[in-house]
Amino acid sequence: MLAALAAYQRGFAGRRAQICYAMKANSSLAVLQVFAQAGCGFDIVSGGELERALAAGAKGTDIIFSGVGKTRAEIRRALEVGIGCFNVESEAELEVLSEVAVAVGKTAHVSIRVNPDVDPKTHPYISTGLKGNKFGVPHERALHAYQRAAALPGLKVIGIDCHIGSQITDEAPYLDAMERVLDLVTAVEATGIPVHHIDFGGGLGIDYDGTVPPAADGLWRKLLARLDARGFGDRLLMIEPGRSLVGNAGVCISEVLYLKPGEHKNFCVIDAAMNDLPRPAMYQAYHAIAALKRGASHASATYDVVGPVCESGDWIGRDRALGVQAGDLLAVMSAGAYCMSMASNYNTRGRAAEVLVDGSQVHLIRERETTADQMRLERLL
Ligand SMILES: *Cc1c(COP(=O)(O)O)cnc(C)c1O
Fold first, then answer.
1. pLDDT in tens, 85-105
2. Which of 21, 86, 163, 279 gets mutated to test ligand 1 (max ligand atoms within 8 A of its CB)?
3. For residue 88, how many C-alpha atoms fall within 13 Å in the half-sphere facing its CB?
4. Average pLDDT over the chain, rounded to an integer
5. Active-site residue identified among 20, 268, 310, 339
6. For site-directed labelling of 72, which of 22, 81, 225, 323 has its Cα 20 to 30 A away?
7. pTM (2 decimals)?
8. How far away, in angstroms, is 370 Cα from ligand 1 center?
9. Do residue 30 and residue 105 come from a single domain?
């Protein structure tokens, strides 16, 4: 985690920059604490994430609030703790934000998330900067939204924001989005509205399957050169990386329960499932799976690695060559992002324990969830 962060920090050395960890990737308190202590701010998408960031030691001013559906209660609470910026995603949200800010007697700092309409060339469920997506204000409406924001009481425009998608493994979409955003900054400032910070979002991919995304420092060298060339190099720069800070730092350890040979397929049934690792079921995502051998190795065969959940969508890996038998342990790799934070209790399965390893130190950072934990909020008739 800290090595991944250091790549961004190297990339921004000597610049005015703030790295806001997009905590939905992994919002466990101790993970947030590590990033808070390393100087990160946080990008949140709910009131719940706001409370987590504060509980982990973040200052209100180091928090920025993204998302298309902020409620009045969430906005009120965020104003109360003095968050750094609201990344506003629609003109309707501007009106509500203004109303709430005036009602509580605070000024809301605003950045408008613009949708630059560039194709990040990633899975359709995790591309967010295309015209058909629900995210952001369309590029051609952005100027109008800025003028509205500048005119509304209780709001102060401070920045611009974009986030084009996730698991991006190519640098071209970033360069394209940057050009489009800088065009807008020029247009907005020409109307007399200063744009103090430029936020380029998150989205940088990680290595799941041997496809190696650009390194954060190298990518930012190129982006900063472009920014300098266009005369915006002295602005406060912000980014919102999530996956790239935590994804490759986590593994999910699971035990082989049964080998189930079949006519068409062999199944390796493990004790982790789609409730623990939802990415394959949601996005057909690939996670490498490694057998953790103790003692003799077993004959290798090709398996679909599946969990116990009663859904055909409950698979973790397809057609994997593994030499395992019941009782062996497997590591599902690159499980640090969008796994625990997406985990559910489907099939009344308790969520896993989480362990943070720091050199030779091992910390239990989340206890294994019990069935009593799961039933705590329920009532019999
Ligand atoms: C999810 C999200 C991010 C982080 O995306 P990653 O692909 O995990 O880096 C950043 N900004 C916003 C607004 C997001 O919704």
1. 999 999 999 999 999 999 999
2. 163
3. 25
4. 95
5. 310
6. 22
7. 0.96
8. 31
9. yes
